[in-house]
């Protein structure tokens, strides 16, 4: 955001290549998430996909675009960090990040499964999360800049919802492997860590001006 303001107004030969890469990156990295077998790699590619939206919004250089970019960066920062924390709790107990081997953990950790569900719903920008506000600002900005972008952002949003559900179902549902019958229980510090991630996301929607009113 700070660098792009020095390039305003953008010459078209500088803006269009970056915009094309950002929009194409949304589709490519989202599609890569659908075929990931490594849990942490899936979460990492998910962050890259969301940052494609942020980059595209910043390049447009409108108040709505900058507001949406700032909102989504803060929201996804908390969401992605919570997903990595959840992935680490799984790894500490199963010692593997392969999705096919860590199925059915809902039976062993029902409360942790609740955190997985809430975090994945936040990652796919379900209402009333602050992630939805940021994505709506960005999608509206890109649609106003160029109408065909609604196709790319719409497909990207659909794929995001798909791999978020895929991640939840692959880790929590199904039958648990016999080698994971005796798993150590979760700790209070882990639940507190996730509360400190998700509570700000819930409270920010009560007053989104704290993060979204910077550029309006």
UniProtKB/TrEMBL annotation:
Keywords on record: Electron transport, Membrane, Mitochondrion, NAD, Respiratory chain, Translocase, Transmembrane, Transmembrane helix, Transport, Ubiquinone
Q: Which domain of life is it from?
A: Eukaryota
One annotated GO molecular function: ubiquinone binding
* Location relative to the cell: Mitochondrion membrane
Taken from the UniProt entry, a GO cellular component term is: mitochondrial membrane
Q: Any keyword Mitochondrion?
A: yes
Q: Which reaction does it catalyse?
A: a ubiquinone + NADH + 5 H(+)(in) = a ubiquinol + NAD(+) + 4 H(+)(out)
- What is its membrane topology? Multi-pass membrane protein
Q: Which GO terms describe its biological process?
A: ATP synthesis coupled electron transport; electron transport coupled proton transport
Query: Could you say which EC number(s) this protein's record lists?
Result: 7.1.1.2
Chain ranges of the NADH:quinone oxidoreductase/Mrp antiporter transmembrane domain: 2-160
| KW Transmembrane helix (keyword) present | yes
Q: Which residues cross the membrane?
A: 14-34, 41-60, 66-87, 99-118, 150-171, 192-215
Family classification: Belongs to the complex I subunit 4 family.
Describe its function: Core subunit of the mitochondrial membrane respiratory chain NADH dehydrogenase (Complex I) that is believed to belong to the minimal assembly required for catalysis. Complex I functions in the transfer of electrons from NADH to the respiratory chain. The immediate electron acceptor for the enzyme is believed to be ubiquinone. Core subunit of the mitochondrial membrane respiratory chain NADH dehydrogenase (Complex I) which catalyzes electron transfer from NADH through the respiratory chain, using ubiquinone as an electron acceptor. Essential for the catalytic activity and assembly of complex I.
Descriptive protein name: NADH-ubiquinone oxidoreductase chain 4
Task: Say which species the protein is native to.
Answer: Podarcis raffonei (Aeolian wall lizard)
């Amino acid at each position: 955001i700070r660098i792009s303001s020095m390039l305003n107004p953008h010459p078209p030969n500088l803006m269009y290549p970056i915009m094309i890469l950002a929009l194409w990156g949304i589709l490519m990295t989202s599609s890569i998430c659908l075929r990931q077998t490594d849990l942490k790699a899936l979460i990492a590619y998910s962050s890259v996909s969301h940052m494609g939206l942020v980059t595209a919004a910043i390049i447009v250089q409108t108040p709505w675009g900058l507001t949406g970019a700032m909102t989504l960066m803060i929201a996804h920062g908390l969401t992605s960090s919570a997903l990595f924390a959840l992935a680490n709790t799984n790894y500490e107990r199963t010692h593997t990040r392969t999705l096919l081997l860590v199925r059915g953990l809902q039976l062993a950790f029902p409360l942790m499964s609740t955190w997985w569900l809430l975090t994945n719903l936040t990652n796919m920008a379900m209402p009333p999360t602050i992630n939805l506000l940021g994505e709506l600002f960005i999608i509206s900005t890109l649609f106003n800049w160029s109408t065909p972008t609604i196709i790319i952002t719409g497909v990207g949003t659909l794929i995001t919802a798909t791999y978020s559900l895929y991640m939840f179902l692959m880790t929590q549902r199904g039958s648990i492997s016999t080698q994971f019958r005796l798993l150590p229980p979760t700790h209070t510090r882990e639940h507190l860590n996730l509360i400190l991630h998700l509570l700000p996301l819930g409270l920010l929607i009560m007053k989104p001006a704290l993060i979204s009113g910077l550029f309006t």
